[in-house]
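Complex 226.
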Amino acid sequence: MIDNAQLTTHFAIIVAGGSGSRMKSDVPKQFLLLNGKPILQHTIERFLEVLPASQLILVLPAKEQAIWEDLCQEHDFHPSIQTANGGATRFQSVRNGLITITVSEGLVAVHDGVRPFISPEIIQNSFETAARTGSAVTCVPVKDSVRVVGANGVSQAVDRSQYRLVQTPQTFQLTSFRQAFQVEEQSFFTDCASVMEYAGFPITLIEGAYENIKITTPEDLKPGFL
Ligand SMILES: Nc1ccn([C@@H]2O[C@H](COP(=O)(O)OP(=O)(O)OP(=O)(O)O)[C@@H](O)[C@H]2O)c(=O)n1
Ligand SMILES: C[C@](O)(CO)[C@H](O)COP(=O)(O)O
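Predicted structure with cytidine-5'-triphosphate bound:
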């Protein structure tokens, strides 16, 4: 758990405002059940081991908030968490969550609602590292061989030791994060680190975990796979 004195300055935005098009399910994937509980509930519970509910912001699809309310009733899950509306892109969802934070200084972690296996230790480490260096971006080394494919279709092996697979949480100083999110959205913004980098802020990497997967496509939920 974060030190009591820091509780009012440490925030986490859990982004669950997407539609989950690659999952091809009837409801957005963050609401699907995993071991009897909504994926999003697992994720929030991991964060509640580190931060109180008052420091969390949950970004939900504007049109599907009733689904989440029904699931919370059904699963008797009632943490008092502020919500914000999702935007058309992840960048816009993060920005919608960010404007609900009114304190001027502190730290903010952004985490995908569909990464339910995040450990409290990684969350904790991301806050500690961001407090020291200004940022903490979770990642893991690449386990497979990697090839780059040129425009002509010809591929070439690359040195995988030079690459990292990026996960969340991604945690930053609030002041620089706010400044970074004032930029015009770019098509290459796939995460918060790319936004911070575009705005000129340095990125510190921290060790993630291979089990901290992002549930993205149906294979990620196949029985026996998880
Ligand atoms: N407009 C968006 C898009 C994504 N997200 C969130 O960002 C996380 C990672 O995004 P991704 O896995 O791509 O989710 P979706 O956008 O929902 O999926 P897809 O790209 O397959 O449509 C998810 O928790 C998702 O809900 C969000 O809050 N708002
Ligand atoms: C933020 C992220 O999960 C880091 O790996 C990823 O970039 C999200 O990408 P997506 O295309 O929105 O799933």
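Residues 15-22, 30, 59, 86-90, 93, 112-114, 214, 216 surround cytidine-5'-triphosphate (ligand 1) (CB under 6 Å).
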